[in-house]
Amino acid sequence: MQDIQKQYKLADISVVTPMTSKTPFICFLGTYSPIMCGIADYTQYVTRELSPGRWGIICFNPGLQKVPQTNNLLSSRDNIWYGLPDSDHLSQEVIGEGLNKLYGNERDCLLWFQHEFGLWPNMQQFVSAMRELDIPKIVTLHTLHFQSQETPSGLRAIEDQLLRSLLPHVDAITVFSHGVYSAVITSFPEYHDKVHIIRHGIHSYPEIKRLTREEAKEKLLDFLLYESNLDYAAKKTLHEQLIFQDQGSIIIGQTGFLDPAKRFEILYHVRDELAKTLPQKHISAVRIGNQREETQKHYTSSLRREHNGVDKFFLETWLPPHMLPVAQRAFDINLYWPDDCTQSGILAHALGAGALIAGRDLEGAGETLKEASAPVATTLERLIDRMREIILNPHLTVHLEDQATAYASRFSWTNQAVRHYELAEQIVHSNLHDTEIQYHPLSLTHLSL
Predict the structure, then answer these.
(1) How far apart are CA 410 and CA 327, in angstroms?
(2) Which one of 246, 289, 293, 412 is most buried, by most CB atoms within 10 A?
């Protein structure tokens, strides 16, 4: 691997991080394309930024999984091994077979697990595997909470139980937010050296960020009318209502798959509340997305009933990856008000597109929005007030979009991939030499670069 130097700025301190040929081989474990889930996407975004030959993936065999899958097959499978039948067959033998196929040398190799409870439902089996594996290992915990009432620290009880069993048997865990980091080290101070923050990566869409709102709306409308699978009636309504063409129209929007926990129906209530106090404004609510699973069928039907084709729209179609951030850029305000959410891929796309987001101050997603200077609130009434202020003062939009862009640059997938390399090198070489690597005078372990 070529030597690379990355320079970042944290507050007023410049941090220079070298990456050398000593960087270990990272083997990720979890889901991956064509399985359709957030962790599969996360792993793909991280590995896309890593150097060829220094990473591989051991993932579940998609042919044995009863989960939604895409038709997007990767062109190269050399660094991916679809040999894990299910979460109950995680063992030294299975992983050893995968490593031999991917790399063939365990000496400078590190296992990096992506964890959420739906992915590894058998907690005891997962912990037993961590105890059995004698290769350096890190676990990224995607779904930890810090605002729960179930434990004094804010963790949920099942999360506290997992960490209590897991931490003795892993070299490190990574979390996405300062809130979760604080909750974990509060509950387990004896393991504070094993807990690291690597923030969720943010996408980069420079061409989309350069689009004006009107240009983004035009692109989105063209897609919906001429490329989407919307039915004729929906396309006719969009053409006639002119919500994307009228420069005076304000669109409050949402995108993504239809998960009931995300409370997408709130969108239409928010539109009505804004319209009551801003009668001079033409405000529309637009929800674009479709169901991913059969269990979302009833919820999808409830959203259809909100559609009136005048100022409330439910556009039941899938947005391909290149159009999702365009839609987020096109909306005057993206509304995000989930019932339960620790992190969000939707936020990662929206911030990368320079979109304006207003959301709920909840768990890690709320922390992300606050650090990106987005309008957030703990009550819907207060958030509506913030949105009303933005609509009445358009100059605020430019400032908020600039802050989103700055956040996206700081926590880009490229930067977060570097953080993966840093931590992997520290763990592997600590195991090899029984000494802790110090990169520079800063405590890099706990910096959230």
Answers:
(1) 23
(2) 289
